[in-house]
Fold these 4 entries.
Entry 1:
Amino acid sequence: MNEATTYCARHPDVETGLRCARCETPICPRCLVQTPVGARCRDCANISRIPTLNITPVYYLRAQAAAIGAGLAVGWFWALATGPRGTIGFFTFFIGLGIGWAISEAISLATNRKRGVALQFCAASGVLIAFLTRNLVLGFPLLPQGDIWAYVILIVAGGFAASRLKF
C-alpha cells in the first residue's frame, strides 16, 4: 500500500510523518512543540512569553524615564555623600552596590517588576547618568582622568544594576 508523501505545513520542502496531536496538521521536528499531551504545532501549543519578560514600548519608556530620574537623583546624592575627594578602597564596592541597587529598583518599580535585556540597558544608562551627574555637581570634567575609584564604582554599579534585571 503506497502512502502519499506528507510535507510540513510550515516548511513545504521537509517531508514528515508527524502530525499535531490536536489539529492533525503535518509538522516537522523543527516545528513541533512538545506538550504534556503530545507533539503539537505552534498554533495549538499556544506559545506565549512569560508576562515578566513581555516588555511593551510603554514599559520601555517608563524604564527609561525611571533610569533618567534615578540617575540624576543618585548622581546628585553620590556627589554630596563622597565630596570631591571621593572614596578609596573597600567602601567603593558598597557605594557601587548601593547605586546599582537604587537605579535597578527604580526601574523595576516603574515597570511592575519586569525583566529583560532592554531593561538591563536602561539600568546601565541610569548608572552612566548618575556618574555624569556626579561629575557635573562636583565641577569635574564629564570623564575625569585619574579618578580610578569613581570608575570602579561605575563598573560595580552598572554590573549590579544590570544583573538585578536579567531574566
Entry 2:
Amino acid sequence: MTTKITIEFDVVPTDSNLPLALTVVLDGESVWQNNAVTETCKVSFTVDDAEGKHVLRWHVSGKLPSYTKIDADGNIVSDSLLKIENFIIDDIDISNLIYVVATYTHDCNGTAEMKTYKMYEELGCNGVAELKFTTPLYLWLLESM
C-alpha cells in the first residue's frame, strides 16, 4: 500500500484589483487553477510517497506592464504579485527550503531575455516557478538541508 503525503501552501495576491492567474501542475497534471487570484487561496493536494521523482510547477500568467507602477526615479512603488506562503509537505513547513532549491524562469514580462532565477516568496512575472523533489520525502529533506 502506498502512503500519500499532502502538499499545501497559500497563494496570496498583493493587489486584488490587478489579479494574476496561477496554475499549479504536479508531474504534468494540473492540480489547481485560478484565472484571477483576488484573495488568499489555500492549495492542497496529495502525492504518493513511493520512490520517485516529482516536479511541482507554478505557471503565472495575466501580468500586464500596467500592473507595475514605477516612480520618476525608476523605483517600483506598487506591483501585482502572488506570494507563496506556508509551504507545508507532510505537516513539515519547508517554506525557507523551497526558496533555496526552487527556480523561477521568466523574461521580466518582456523586458529582458528569458532567464532562470532562484524562486523567492513572490511570483511577479509571467513565467514558471519549479520545485523538483523526490520521494520518499524524508530522504529528500535530509539531502536538501
Entry 3:
Amino acid sequence: MPGRSVVILPGLGNNSSDYRQLAMTLRSRYGMHVETAPVSRLDWTRNAAGLLDGAYWSGSLCPRPTVDWYLQRVDLAVNKARSACPDKPITLLAHSAGGWLGRVFMLEFGTSALGIDRFVSLGSPHQPPPPGVVDQTRGILTWVSNKCPGTFHEDVQYVTIAGRFIRGASLLGPGNWQQRIVGAGYKQVCGEAEVWGDGIVPLPTAMLEGALQLTLDRVYHSPLGAQQVVVAVDGENFSDKTANEMYKVSLFQTPSPDLSVDEGEIEGASRTSSLSPAESFQLKVTEGPRLWYGSDVVLENWVSTLTDSKSLASVDAL
C-alpha cells in the first residue's frame, strides 16, 4: 500500500483530466496514491454566483458560499484518499487558484483530522494585490491572507513553487508583444508589469512567508498544451534522455526583488547552478514547446517536496 496520498487541486478553468498524466506519473513512478478533485471547466461558471453579492462589486467578497462547490469537490477527493489509504498522510497538491482555494479548504475543513500534513502549490497567486490594483478575486485573496496568513497551520509543512518562464514588459516600454501581453496580466495580479513569472502568475505573488520556496527556471504555468520533454532543438531531433540532460532547472529560495541569485548552497537544498544550455535552446523552450510544473523532466526536481522537503538536499542537475 502506498505510504502517502496526494490530492490534486485543479486551477481556475482547468478540469480534472488536465492532470491525468501528472497523476499517472505520481502513481506509477513514485508509488503514491493520487486523487484529483473532480472539476470540469463548466463548473467554474458557478463562481458567477458571486456577481449577485454586493461584496463582489465592492471588492470585499468572502470565499463562502461562492466557492463552496469547489471545497466540496476537494472534500470528496480527500475522503476518497482516506478510504483508499487509511491512516496514511495526505499532501494537497494545488495548481494555480487551487492554491488559495486549498488554504480556504484547510481553514474551513481542518487538517490533522483529515490526515493533511503537507501543502504544495504550483504557480499559485498567494499574495493579494497592492492598494490601487483591482483584486481579480474580488476580495477573496485578501480575505484568505487575513484569515490564514503565511504558513498558518503549524501541523502542515508548506512548499510554494513558482515558474520563471518569461519577464513581462510595460505596454510602452521595451519588449516584444508577448512580454507586453504577459506584463499586462502580471500588473493585474501584483501591480507591476516588468517582473518575472510563469506567464500567468508573477513571482512576487507566488510565495508564502515561512514556506519552503522554490523557483523553477523556464517552467510555464499551464498543463494545457504542455509537453513532457523537449524533443527538438534548432530543427534537430534528440532522444528524451538527451533533452532531459540539456534541460536544467534552478532551485533557490526567496528570490530577491531583482531576482539575482547567490551561487552558493541554500538552506535545506543544494541549488543546481544555472548550467543553462545554449541561449537558442532557452528561446526554443520559451517560444516553442512548453514544459509546465508537472512535465516529467520538471517534476523530478520538486517531487520530493510531496513527501519530505529535507530530501531536496539530494537534488542535482539532470
Entry 4:
Amino acid sequence: MGPWAGNPAVAEAARRDVPKPETYYDMLKPMCERVDIWHTIYSHVLAGSEAIVEWLKGSTLQPFLSALEPQMIDEFLAAYTAQIDRHHSKRIDGQVLLKLPRLFIVATQ
C-alpha cells in the first residue's frame, strides 16, 4: 500500500460513515413538526484522475496530507491518483465524472 499505511494519524484521518437518513429523522422528529430528507448525487465533470485529486486536495484529502511527512506526500498522491484512475472511466470526450453525493434535510417546527 505504501509507507504511510502504518501511520496511525493517516488511519485516524479516514472519514467515518455518515449516518443514514433514518438516523437524522429519528433524531430531529421529536423536536420538529415536519422533517424532509432527500439524497442527491451530482456528477461533476473533470479532466481526469489528476483533476479529481486536485479537487479533493482542498477538502477530503487534507487530513491525510497533514498526517504525512512532507517527503511522503508526492508518493501518496501518486498512489491515490492511480486508485482514482482505476475507478473512474474516461467518457467519450476523455473527461471523467466525479460523483458527489449530498444529503439534504429541512426540519421545521
